[in-house]
Amino acid sequence: MSFEVFYSSPVGKWLGFVAAVWVQAISGNNYTFSNYSDALKSLMALTQLQLNNLSVSKDVGKAFGILAGLASDRLSTPVILLIGGIEGFIGYGVQWLVVSGTIKPLPYWIMCIFLCMGGNSTTWMNTAILVTCIRNFRKNRGPVTGILKGYVGLSTAIFTDICSALFASDPSTFLLLLAVVPFTVCLTAIVFLREIPPSSTNAEEKEEVKHFGVINIIAVIIAVYLLVFDISGPHGKVFSQIFAAILLVLLGSPLLIPIYLMVKRFIRANSENNLDVEGNNIIAEPLLLGEETVKKEVVVVEENVVAVVEVEEKRPRVIGEDHTIFEAMRTLDFWILFVSFLCGVGTGLAVMNNLGQMGLALGYTDVSIFVSLTSIWGFFGRIISGSVSEYFIKKAAVPRPIWNAASQILMAVGYIFLAMALPGSLYIGSIVVGICYGVRLAISVPTASELFGLKYYGLIYNVLILNLPLGSFLFSGLLAGLLYNAQATKTAGGGNTCVGAHCYKLVFIVMSITCIVGFGLDILLTIRTKSLYAKIYASRKAKKTSTVLS
């Protein structure tokens, strides 16, 4: 069997998706800063504002994700993955050299560059994975995004718990894992992940849904397994090693799907001599039926008809069709989505970047539990919202942005609870922020593809996630950093510290108000896109009916 035939077969398609899941399971390293931020702060004698700006540097790396977006239409998936793997290896590798004491602490601005490289590496990985998989499974965008973004959410807990189990949460070892593991997994994914034709029949689509269900179940088992480990208290060395071994087995278990398909194919090989293989060209089937097909049919006619088509091509794009980034940015819907996304992910990043200091301010000595809780519950937010939103689109044409609105209002309540600093509030706050942040990512990604199409999706996605560095700068670097410094006292080494509920109280209140603004924007987008989702629903229903009749 040739490589092209293998990649286009169900076995190759699902082997590629499993590889994509593995990449996402190790690409959430941007959310792990709290696990080693205190080591950087003490080694470099930083104030909290300086530390926060250092964390902003890693998020600024995502601003250069536009390069990955541009490359997604010009370079192959393996090349994009290789770039991300190498960049992450260098960025986190240098941080490991500093924290481990192998080299002396580098100047502040140089450390900012290497943190920026580490942050940018994930944009190449995520662009390669999301763009390729959404195109490969374009009829199941919600579940695909939920699963992939869910594993990104779990990756923080995976790294944190493995490091805690095997290396006693040592910051330098943790950074070594961040440098080596993603690079190794990206090399594996390079072999298997390719862009191939999507499902063409209703039966294939139903088969995909079943397989996604299996991967969802495996992911939930992993999440619960990690959660039980986190809340079950201190563990012995042997128990921790067994935990890590079982976790690796669970992470490898999605391979059961391509193995099952391979066995199924082998059994049928004796009775079926001719295998129906899809063509090599990727057909960008639109979500909405109609105009594009009509254009292709009339082009074959006389010269005067061709002229009519050319005039037709120049009309303004409507929501639901393929947009270039400039066409998308000229629409009000893009900016509503952009700003509401900023309100959700910007405030969420502020909490994730400052969990270490928030925990210390409230008297906790070990903050790794909060990092893991945010990660695990973020997974549940991502994976559940992806599948649930897809279900309600198919069943009742419910606009996907309504779920963003629900997450924004819940997040606002969570910040109020954190501001009250009641006993256990940081546990509850970590869970609420994790869930809502996960929902925000899992919903916004397919929403953008539905509003502006898949043709230029790589670039549109990376422009949209400019909100990550922008939100990190506004809410973590400026808001949290400045307000913390105003409350903190200087330490002997030149840094500063703050202890007490007052350290972040005003920060949480401001972020709660921000989420309420985001809620209003999401409701507005829901209203504006109601007709689009009604058309998507009608289009899918018409396809299903025609398939049944034929």
Automatic annotation (TrEMBL):
Membrane-topology descriptor: Multi-pass membrane protein
Transmembrane listed as a keyword: yes
Localization, UniProt: Membrane
Residue ranges constituting the NFD4 C-terminal domain according to the UniProt record: 327-533
Keyword S-adenosyl-L-methionine: no
A GO term from the CC aspect: membrane
Chief location category: membrane
Family to which this protein belongs: Belongs to the major facilitator superfamily. Phosphate:H(+) symporter (TC 2.A.1.9) family.
Name of the protein described by the UniProt record: Nodulin-like domain-containing protein
Organism annotation: Anisodus tanguticus
